[in-house]
Amino acid sequence: MDFKEGSFKIEYYVGDEKTKQTTFETEQLKVTCKISEGISLFIIPKTEIKLSNLSLEFKRVFKKESKFFANGYQSWTTSREYSMNDKEDRLTKIADILRPLKPLAAISGDYLFRHHSKKPGVITSYTYAYIREGSEIELIGSLSEKEGFTLITADMNQDTLTLSKDIDGLVIKEPTEIINVRIYKDNYENAFDRYVKEAGYKKPRINLLTGYTSWYNYFQKIDENIILRDLDGLDRCKEKVSIFQIDDGYETFVGDWLDKSEKFPRGMKYIADKIHDKGYLAGIWLAPFNVQRKSKTAKEHPDWLIKNKSGKPLLGCAGWGGAYTLDIYNPEVRQHIKNVFNVVLDDWKYDMVKLDFLYSQCMQPRNGKSRGAIMDYAMAFLRECVGDKLMLGCGVPLGSAFGYVDACRISCDVDLSFKGRYYNKLHINCEIPSAKNAITNTIFRRHLNNRFFVNDPDVFFLRDINLKFTQKQKHLLAKINNMFGNVLFISDDAGKYEDREISFLKKAFTKTETKVIIAEFVDKETIKITYTESESPMEKTLKFNIKTGETAGELL
């Protein structure tokens, strides 16, 4: 990158007066920028200022064969390599045309606060990105997202690379480092090893989680009988199972986590005890920041909710008929959430919590904090609540999860139809359930696995009922998850498996040591992976159509 042909821009407020400038010093602030093996940028305010945005543009020549990897906004957002002819994945045109749909379609992404280019080759990545030319990459990685999200935008046809910060709403009074980015030119594996080492994150405490989660067979329609039946169903392969997780549906309403449900008459501690009797870890799902509109918590504590600019409760997610978001800057809210975790982890004795829809906490800047600053505070708070128990993050901006979670979802929900349903054909947004996008993310976010956390690629399936997958599609998904993920879950009643399915499951739960030589799109629908397994130097190839699942190569 060459800043000699670049530019600098900053926007901020002093009081109600907005200022835009392209120089590094004015009467109100001074900016220092050091460029060597990375970029370190400080803002030194001379008075209290509220930042709006900041960007540094560099000259960076792209070749025809250059690939730019863009990390999506949060866990579910499509993340992959792009060429200069590709357009950025964005909100569908239907959401623009059907205006009432747009806020709901945009709710889980960055569509309402970031411009998504329609031009080919203009692609934006969050926290880190890389440019790949052959086997070498140039990795640009942020070492801190505490003040705001770092965005890296490539214009591959105009030969520019722009670093910007989502610092809208951030108030500063003291000298503050806004950008802290490093650049690593190396082969793929070495570059990410250097990045995680310099960032200072410890190796994940866990290596592999294998087992069951209830969501993708029953969704919220679970009860004590179903859970205990499926728990017993794993007996024939229990030596390969490490964890059994209860997903959404055990609670009376989202947000009323501790109220006893008629569906679980003996309570959730009883379920955890039964799981422990099998020798497994007990996991449970929570959306700790969310409260269903009809929940008791929302009705009794309207003052606990984040408000939008109109003073109404902010809708944090569209599911469950709509859910609001608790404001963790409210001391009563923090105490309430701590109490929930104390009961779930200490009284009920669950070993792991899967924490979902976390992005909802940082949907809008507030309290003099940017979205990224809010998300970092929220993740630190959750880690404090969870203590030394395991935490699996989901629906979270990944840079904010670094250093806090033990495991993290790195894909959207996989969905029950390989080829997709009506909403996949409409491509409403980049976070919607999709087997295609889940597989894509699992492959192209593989570099995070066992570095920043262990990757959760979502479930694979072996059952035949309530599912639109062919046998080959099911085995392809299992192969991809096994190659690139370390959280390997099914959501089937394994008690209905034939012996051959039990044998396959044992194999799928046995982690295969894979060294990827290259993984890339060879055309818009085909991914090719060249790799070696275990200690064998013999190269293998897996090539498949991401839309149909047609595969050439060795599966499990």
Summarize the model shown.
The chain has 556 residues and is an alpha+beta fold. Helix content is 23%, strand content 30%.
Description:
- By secondary structure, the chain is an alpha+beta fold.
- The protein folds into three domains: 2-199, no CATH class; 209-410 and 445-511, TIM Barrel, CATH 3.20.20; 512-556.
- The chain is 23% helix and 30% strand.
- The strands form five sheets. The chain has an eight-stranded parallel β-sheet with strand order 24-23-22-21-17-16-15-25. Strands 1, 2, 5, 8, 11, 12 and 13 form a seven-stranded antiparallel β-sheet that branches.
- Helix 12 runs parallel beside helix 13.
- The longest helix is centred in the middle third of the chain and has 17 residues, at 331-347.
Helix/strand layout:
Layout: E1 2-14, E2 17-21, E3 29-35, E4 38-45, E5 49-59, E6 67-70, E7 80-82, H1 93-97, H2 102-105, E8 122-126, E9 128-133, E10 136-142, E11 149-155, E12 160-166, E13 171-172, E14 176-187, H3 188-199, E15 209-213, H4 215-218, H5 224-233, E16 243-246, H6 267-277, E17 281-286, E18 290-292, H7 296-300, E19 315-317, E20 323-325, H8 331-347, E21 352-355, H9 371-386, E22 390-393, H10 398-401, E23 407-409, H11 422-426, H12 435-444, E24 454-456, H13 471-484, E25 487-490, H14 499-508, E26 514-523, E27 526-533, E28 540-545, E29 551-552
Parallel strand pairs: 15-16, 15-25, 16-17, 17-21, 21-22, 22-23, 23-24
Antiparallel strand pairs: 1-2, 1-5, 3-4, 4-14, 5-12, 5-13, 6-7, 6-9, 8-11, 9-10, 10-14, 11-12, 18-20, 19-20, 26-27, 27-28, 28-29
Helix pairs in contact: 12-13
